[in-house]
C-alpha cells in the first residue's frame, strides 16, 4: 500500500514547514537548538511540525 501526500495537502504542509522554520530561526533559542529543530522539521515534515508545535514553541 503506497500512501502519497500531494496536491493541496502537500502545499499546506510545505507552507506550514516553512513558517515553522522561519519562526525557529527568529526565536531566542540557542544556535544548537535552532539547528536541531530545523533538521527535525526538514527530515520529518509532518511529524517534525507537530513536535515543534507541541514542544518547540515557547
Please describe what this structure looks like.
It is a single chain. This protein has 58 residues and is mainly α. The protein has a domain at 29-58. 78% of the residues lie in helices and 0% in strands. The chain contains three helices and no strands. It has helices at residues 7-26, 31-43, 45-56. Helix 1 runs antiparallel to helix 2, helix 1 crosses helix 3 (45-56) and helix 2 runs antiparallel to helix 3. The protein is elongated. The termini are far apart.
Give the key terms.
single chain; 58 residues; mainly alpha
Tell me the span between the first and last alpha carbons: 38 Å
Poorly predicted sequence stretches spanning 5 or more consecutive residues? none
SSE class: mainly alpha
Care to count the β-strands?
0
- The radius of gyration computed from the alpha-carbon positions, rounded to a whole number of angstroms, is 12 Å
Shape: elongated
The SSE order reads HHH
- Percent strand: under 5%
- Share of helical residues: over 70%
Can you count the helices? 3
Largest sheet: none
